[in-house]
Write a structure and sequence with these properties.
Chain lengths: 477, 326
């Protein structure tokens, strides 16, 4: 007998998949990635005088060219500076070894009269991580090119030192005794923004920022990508910092690496006899040092607690770790969800696709008066499900390995899940994720999560344990 | 010698398409109107073959020198002995000849429940589909009550049931003799109910006893249930092929499970459907006891060796997911 079997034999499972997705767990978009306009495009009216040459200027808005004579003269300090700095300013490019096409570009500057160039680690990261695939090249303001040799990196402060085949004129000096900067003081930032050409921009120094784990200087002036690694100097030519980043959600809020870290790195270079062959173990060591400092600072005192409903939840609020609260007070839902999320505002850049040395925690307290126990369970289940913990196809990290159990802390029973991923390139570094859900109330659930990335196994366990030990049930205040 | 013979033309699956009684031998076969049995096949000759009795009393078919000939079991024959089960092909026509005294096998026992046909099982099937679609929506409904969501689920569920049941009824009409739509609806309703109940029950058991493997590999049981449902559909179409259908459905279940495992491995690198059990139920439903934080941390510590072995394993560079690209 001939018989054709229907292929859609799983069709009846479809109806079971009608589960409604809950978006309550998604983290808030606190920093909108709006990019401010990089240039001020000339208005359309600029062309008007060209069409009507004899027209009275008052009738049309002044063009930029016409307006300039009316404005004060451009800062002569900037003019002087750029003229003097020109010879020691470089663009640093990462090239693919095959085909020599550029992959990333940044800036750099020659230190004193040496053949050493300071730049950012993130400008040369590809060369440091994959020397078989990428090589570096410099281009100076005259368009001359030459090879660069990587000597040292400081991943934590985002600095690197490279050597090139010529010497500096001595304009950029890093004096042993640093000049004291005062707030509001003019600084001039140099570099090659967006690979458009060398540029100087003026801004002001606005103090030391402690929000990032390592001190950075706040520079209120334009820094664009491509200027990374370039110097920011005082009017007298003393280097104040190295351009590193800017806030995309702000206007002219840029950051510099303080020059004292660059001096420390240069001292290390002076001591080393030959550049390391492989930077990966070195970067691994620096990340290990960072995680130790990070976890020690996180756990130096018992974690603070906050009340969420009847539960005590651990938080850590400091200069580096900011917490944000949010609630789903909407008429539509039949449950209430309050969320506190705390996270470190900075992370360590390792490569374009990998940031580490970070910590984040989230507590979500969900309860419902109108839902029955069964449906509340389904809701809690949906919220407890997280799918984005990664797979084992990743070249940077192993797949997650998880442990789960019913656990009782000092005063509350929990369902606890810990997932760990190991770094493939850096031995001894792991990402830890702990997820917990309270199991003592049929109509309320406290779901917490802590993520620490780039920590040693011991410190990951320590953090997990501290977090679990602090979670509890407290008396209502 | 009995004087009555039956020439039967057969479909490829063995079903009799046409049966013709012939009073006496010889029987002339061919396209021409002077034959005893007229074969309406343009690949047959006007006088194609003749069936006679040989000295031993057996029926013998003889080719009358045609272009296409007489084919038995793929070989062309000029003449061959026709037992009651010998099927020959003339052109595109398959036929056999049986005498009136051909012994037929005993009647098969009728296991079909003839009372459970038509409207009643159909309604029960629809009722099950409706109840379980509404239940699924109700369980996941965390918004304020809106009737339309339930009505929609009901409509989609019933429509899916009718399409599925209708397709099987069509097959049933084609290969069996009756459509038996009610039966097929009932089977689908039961299958859907079984899968839903299994999902709920397995979640309860997994949570209660902390048996995480159930939620990780439970989908294979669901696949088995679906294969079981297919078995009942097939047996309804052809009631007498139980063993063959059972084997077919087992193979389908194995294929389904295999595909699930392979796609899990491709997608996430692990065989289970999920990384950890996300089911949370009310405290009263829990049987398994609590562990101390220390025990939990010991288990976390025990994962280190596995991770360290895993990290040096080479991965295929092309398969990197760019999920957290900056």
């Amino acid at each position: 007998m001939k018989f054709v079997l229907p292929a859609a034999f799983l069709a009846c499972l479809c109806a079971a998949a009608l589960a409604t997705a809950q978006s309550a767990r998604q983290s808030p978009q606190q920093t909108a990635n709006q990019r401010a306009p990089l240039t001020n495009p000339a208005p359309a009216q600029t062309l008007a005088p060209a069409i009507q040459p004899g027209g009275p200027p008052a009738a049309t808005p002044p063009t930029e060219d016409e307006a300039n004579p009316a404005l004060p003269l451009p800062s002569s300090a900037a003019q002087n500076l750029y003229a003097k700095a020109k010879a020691d300013l470089l663009q640093i490019r990462m090239l693919l070894k095959n085909g020599r096409s550029q992959s990333t570009v940044g800036s750099g500057f020659m230190v004193g009269t040496s053949n050493l160039v300071l730049t950012n680690y993130h400008v040369v990261s590809q060369m440091a991580l994959d020397p078989d695939v990428y090589i570096g090249e410099y281009v100076d303001t005259d368009g001359k090119r030459g090879p660069v040799e990587l000597l040292a990196v400081d991943v934590l402060h985002d600095l690197a030192v490279v050597r090139i085949n010529r010497e500096g004129t001595g304009f950029f000096n890093l004096p042993e005794k640093l000049a004291k900067l005062t707030q509001g003081q003019y600084l001039y930032s140099l570099g090659n923004p967006l690979d458009l050409g060398f540029a100087i921009s003026e801004g002001s120094y606005n103090g030391v920022i402690t929000r990032s784990f390592y001190d950075q200087l706040m520079f209120t002036g334009p820094i664009n990508s491509g200027m990374s690694g370039g110097p920011s100097v005082t009017v007298s030519g003393d280097v104040a910092g190295v351009n590193v980043s800017k806030r995309r959600d702000g206007e002219l809020v840029s950051f510099l690496v303080p020059v004292r870290y660059a001096q420390e790195l240069l001292k290390k270079v002076a001591l080393q006899t030959a550049p390391p062959k492989d930077f990966n173990p070195l970067i691994g060591q620096q990340l290990l040092a960072h995680q130790k400092a990070m976890v020690d600072r996180l756990l130096d005192a018992p974690l603070a607690t906050k009340m969420m409903g009847p539960y005590l939840v651990p938080v850590r609020e400091s200069e580096q770790v900011r917490c944000w609260g949010r609630s789903n007070v909407k008429a539509e839902a039949s449950f209430t969800a309050d969320t506190i999320s705390c996270s470190m505002e900075s992370a360590i850049f390792v490569s374009e696709s990998q940031q580490t040395g970070h910590m984040a925690m989230t507590h979500q307290y969900v309860r419902s008066a109108s839902l029955d126990k069964i449906r509340f369970s389904v809701l809690a289940t949906t919220l407890f499900k997280v799918d984005n913990l990664g797979s084992n196809k990743d070249t940077r990290l192993t797949g997650p390995s998880c442990t789960e159990q019913f656990v009782v802390t000092r005063s509350v029973p929990l369902r606890a899940v810990t997932c760990v991923r190991a770094y493939r390139k850096f031995a001894g570094l792991y990402n830890f994720t702990l997820m917990t859900a309270t199991t003592d109330d049929a109509k309320a659930s406290l779901q917490s999560r802590i993520d620490v990335s780039g920590v040693s196994y011991e410190n990951g366990m320590r953090t997990t344990r501290a977090f679990l030990d602090t979670l509890g049930r407290g008396s209502r205040q | 010698m009995t004087a009555s013979y039956f020439v039967e033309t057969l479909a490829r699956n063995g079903d009799v398409l046409h049966r013709h009684q012939v009073g006496s031998l010889p029987i002339r076969l061919g396209r021409g109107y002077d034959n005893d049995f007229i074969v309406d096949d343009s690949h047959c000759a006007a006088r194609h073959a003749i069936i006679e009795s040989d000295p031993d009393g057996r029926l013998v078919l003889r080719d009358l020198g045609t272009r296409n000939g007489v084919v038995h079991q793929g070989k062309r024959k000029s003449s061959l002995v026709m037992s009651g089960d010998t099927v020959v092909r003339l052109g595109h026509t398959m036929l056999r000849v049986r005498a009136a005294d051909f012994p037929v096998p005993d009647e098969q026992l009728d296991r079909t429940m003839h009372a459970w046909e038509g409207g009643m099982p159909g309604l029960v099937g629809m009722f099950l589909i409706g109840v379980f679609s509404v239940l699924t929506v109700w369980l996941n409904d965390t918004q304020s009550f809106q009737l339309i969501r339930y009505l929609q689920a009901l409509a989609y569920g019933i429509a899916a049931g009718l399409v599925w049941g209708g397709a099987w009824a069509f097959a049933n009409r084609l290969f069996g003799r009756h459509a038996r739509l009610g039966r097929h609806l009932f089977i689908f309703g039961c299958g859907f109910a079984a899968v839903t109940v299994f999902k709920l029950l397995s979640s309860v058991v997994a949570y209660s006893f902390s048996f995480e493997a159930i939620t990780r590999y439970g989908s294979h049981v669901a696949i088995l249930l679906v294969a079981g449902m297919l078995y009942f559909h097939l047996s309804t179409v052809k009631p007498n092929n139980a063993r063959k259908f059972a084997v077919t459905c087992c193979i389908i279940a194995l294929l389904g499970s295999g595909l699930t495992l392979i796609s899990n491995e491709q997608r996430s690198g692990r065989l289970g459907d999920e990384l950890y059990m996300s089911v949370l139920l009310p405290p009263t439903m829990r049987v398994a006891g609590d562990h101390q934080v220390g025990e939990f941390m010991d288990k976390v510590g025990a994962m280190k060796a596995r991770l360290d072995a895993e990290r040096t394993r080479k991965v295929n560079d092309g398969a990197v997911d760019d999920d957290d690209d900056a």
